[in-house]
Amino acid sequence: MMKTLILLCSLILSVGQTIAQNPTPTELNDLNKLRAAYPLAQPKATAAEVEAALSEDLFTPLPTISKEQTPHIAATVRALAYAKLSGKSGAAERLDAYLDYLSKDSVIEQMPKLVYSAYGSVRQLPADLLSALPACDSLRRTRLIAGVKELIEFDRTYLTDSELRRQINSDYLYNVLQHLFVCAIHNPDNQQAVADLKAFSHFLSGCAQYVPGGGDVLKPDGTGFHHNTHYNGYMYSYRTWVQYMGRLKGTTYRITETAYNHVAQAVVATYLMATRSTSDDNRHFAASLGGRHPYTGTQVSFTQALFDELIAIGGDILGTGIDHELAACYNYFFKTDKYKEAGVCNLDGFYSFNYSPAGVYRYGDWVATMRCPTTRFWGGELYSRQNRFGRYQSHGTLEIVYEGNLARSGYPSDPSQLAAGWDWNMPCGSTTVHYPTWKDLLPNGNDTDRFDQYTLTTNFSGALSWGDCGMFAAAFDQGDSWGNRRYTPTNLTFCKSVFAFDGILVSLGTGISAVGDYPDTWQTATNLFQHIGKGDLPFMVDGTEPAQGDTLRLAANRKHYLLTPAGTGYYLPAANEAVEVIYNMQSTPSLKGLEANIFRNVLAAKAFIDHGVKPQNKRYAFYVIPGTTAEGLKQTARRIDKDLFRILAQEDSLHVLQHRPTGTVAYALFAPSDNLTYGKLRSADTALLAMERCDASGQELDLVLCCPDLRPVPDKTYRWRSSATCATLVLDGQWKQKTGTHQTAILEPTDGKTRVTVWLSEGTSVHLKLDVR
Which residues of 126-138 are buried (b: 16+ CB within 10 A; e: fewer)? Predict the structure, then answer.
């Protein structure tokens, strides 16, 4: 089908590349280089497979070809090819006859469509068929490749960008690229091989375009999508993708610079979410980003070797030997000076990933991650016998992950235990309704029913970055259904924010409510932390170490100081409800559910703010100081009270904080607001995040804005698309855009104020630099 299309016309691809009918000398030379560098692998087979292939009746007509028959057909081809190349008597004739039979009856072309998420068969079946290529003459090789191309939908590589955008799939990238490559470069027809190789290159580049809504793979903020949301756990697809991009470097078939930039951004984003390491080991991101494998699937899967390869790919495209900017990132992430000429960039700071939605704060040897779901981004994915208790894993979480193994951060660290021993009611920083039995936390009370935790109606969740500081905020209302009701409704709601400055995280919560027809034993809490196992430091509560077995209730409206065994400090000012502290052994089930009967008894240090049963409009405020000591916590708390922060507003629809050393005022506006008096911002006609900073003279103003609500609208192809927000703000004073800055807003000064109109889209930030008029 595709060959006919090529013969009919020259297909003009949207990247501006024309598929030539007559290959150039450079194209042919590079094709032959690739054939030499990546020769066909020799087939392998067991003695039993060879005996069966030589003795079975293989030529019985097949009126239809079932999914169950296809692996046997492909394995027979592989076994006969091995037998022929091994010199087995009669094998050559039998292989040729079998291939002719498959070709004559179009058996391969009639095989059922591959399921690209079926990792075993989609990788093995085409590989078995293609393994016979070294044993084929030119005619049979051509026929076999044509059949496999039909099977793996090679025609996808010839789609225009707009057509391809609708079909990009990370499973296809991970499982099928190797087959596409073999079919392209080892076609005996050089003209067809060049055309297919150019199409393959176009496909690699085309898959790097940003895809709207819930579609795979890449988004403008660098997140990678699968299962309709940001999913680091599936981004091992980057490995195959970059591997085959690397094979094309140094040739006329190299990928485009735009595609390279997008993939490099995605790889860096994955590393930014995780701790640093000198190797591929112990490079972890937060459990809230773990999909259906929290605590067991948080390791970055993109390897150091492939990072090196990506740097070389960039150097080839840019003509600079290596991509110096990416190499400087490599030196930072791997704590090395391998690329001395690139230097080391310091990537500590705050990062927003609003297609997650998450905020990430990197500081020293730890990474803080904030996350909360929306109607389009689930917070927990609960599969049959996988992540059965993961409903709460992103319920407005604030997690601190330290460099080293997971035990260093107090997380489950033995993969064989499948996270047993963890209290699933209490993800760090989350606000949850505690279930007294584990069965209550299972969807429909069983180990198999699916559930994805979305919000019921809210889409305001995300972060605003301003270099070395930033903020996260979320408005949450809990959904209890997935297709049909999975849980007894608790109607949990909250608004929460986290502000990050100077290695300190300020966490505010309001509007915490839960109501429903559920037992009075279900307690609502904001969970400060949970640390299982022994840590590097003693567990400290208000300056003393509790005894194992203690359960403490710290008085409401009093200052409290808690230090986890990992060295994370929590300072609670005298404006909170009572705090429950537990330091005792706990026995909990594994993420497989209850039927597996895998329990682990482990020492746990944990604490939560008790909001009571079925609370209404509760609030909290606390400070998190990672990487500290008991004395350091007390000293930092004194600085906080004296000159570091002022909580200017903590209302249901408005959180405002001032960082006093810089004068920065940060706003979480959960709804339109007016009559503001905390800084220069006087009103905003939409919910948004904002940070402002005036210089000492009061003549210059920096204003950073974003709307984390992507305002999803339905879309038949991508489930949804984002839509832009037109925000109108009023600032105190008369301001103009600073000379030389990009015009991103309309400013209208009048009556001592300035009306600012700005478009906010895709969760990205807008930075306005203003001068007094």
Answer: bbbbbbbbbbbee
